[in-house]
Design brief:
The structure holds 2 protein chains of 2 kinds.
Chain A (H helix, E strand, L loop, with lengths): L4 E3 L2 E4 L5 E6 L6 E7 L6 E7 L2 E4 L8 E4 L6 E5 L8 E8 L9 E2 L3 E5 L1
Parallel strand pairs in A: 2-11
Antiparallel strand pairs in A: 1-3, 3-8, 4-5, 4-9, 5-6, 7-8, 9-10, 9-11
Chain B lengths: L2 E3 L3 E5 L4 E8 L6 E6 L6 E6 L3 E5 L2 E6 L4 E6 L8 E8 L5 E3 L3 E6 L1
Classes of the chains: A mainly beta, B mainly beta.
């Protein structure tokens, strides 16, 4: 079956522009996570949804970052007024539930470059 | 808070065995994951431990000691394709998963 998909795969934005990154999780997966991964680092947690409810947004680095999942499936991560330090790969992951052995399945990521 | 420590880099020879260690501190604990990530690709699931002991899956095994906040990933019969980053990740009390910075493993002939 289809895995997690993300679009666009690559995005170049000028500093100050707004960007929107999309994630299509695996059908039926309840939990959805967004991570930010800088070069040579592990994924850093940004936010977590259970269905349409955003249960944890403690990892969002500033109020320029906003995520939504209005119908409990597709999610969008929006970054307003992008800064150079926002350049990273943004990974989306979904899991059937968020407990037990249920591992997270990752999408290919969106590589954001802010110039 | 949550903190994960693992070595930054390791080198091992094709056909050998390598052990990648990970120590963690979490607010609550609900399981320890290992993921493999090839350069430029997404992480893929390798193993999950929630109880103490060794879990074996083919050439890969993972060990957990909850009392010591310690885990390791053991890779046997190393192959060149095993060259990748190996991410240790701990799930805390509120289901949030915290990843380490990853151990970049280079397998040499």
């Amino acid at each position: 079956g289809a895995g997690v998909s993300q679009s666009p795969r690559y995005k170049v934005a000028k500093r100050g522009q707004d960007v929107a990154l999309r994630c299509d999780p695996i059908s039926g997966h309840v939990s959805l996570f967004w991570y930010q991964q800088a070069l040579g680092q592990g994924p850093e947690f940004l936010t977590y949804f259970q269905n349409e409810a955003q249960l944890d947004k403690s990892g969002l680095p500033s109020d320029r970052f906003f995520a939504e999942r209005p119908e409990g499936s597709v999610s969008t991560l929006k970054i307003q007024r992008t800064q150079q330090e926002d350049s990273a790969v943004y990974l989306c992951a979904s899991s059937l539930v968020d407990r037990g052995r249920n591992e997270q399945y990752f999408g290919p990521g969106t590589r954001l470059t802010v110039t | 808070g949550q903190n994960i420590d693992q070595p930054t880099e390791m080198t091992a020879t094709e056909g050998a065995i390598v052990q990648i260690n990970c120590t963690y501190q979490t607010s609550g604990f609900n399981g320890l994951f290992w993921y493999q990530q090839h350069a430029g690709e997404a992480p893929t699931f390798l193993s999950y431990n929630v109880l103490d002991g060794l879990e074996e899956k083919g050439r890969f095994s993972s060990f957990l000691s909850r009392s010591k906040g310690y885990s390791y990933l053991l890779l046997k019969e190393l192959q060149m394709k095993d060259s990748a980053s190996y991410l240790c990740a701990a799930r805390g009390g509120y289901q949030k998963v915290t990843f380490g910075t990853g151990t970049k493993l280079q397998v040499i002939p």
